[in-house]
Amino acid sequence: MIINENVYVKDPESSALGKKILNESILLIDEMGFEAFTFKKLGQKIESNESSIYRYFENKHKLLIYLTSWYWSWMEYRLVFETANLESAHERLKKAILLFTEEIEDDLSTEHINESVLQRIIISDFTKTILTKEVDLENRNGFFLIYKRVIHRISQLIKEVNSNYPYPDSLASSIIEGALHQHFLKQHLKSITNCDDLITPADFYMDMINKVLN
Question: Where is the HTH tetR-type domain (predicted)?
Answer without folding.
Answer: 15-75
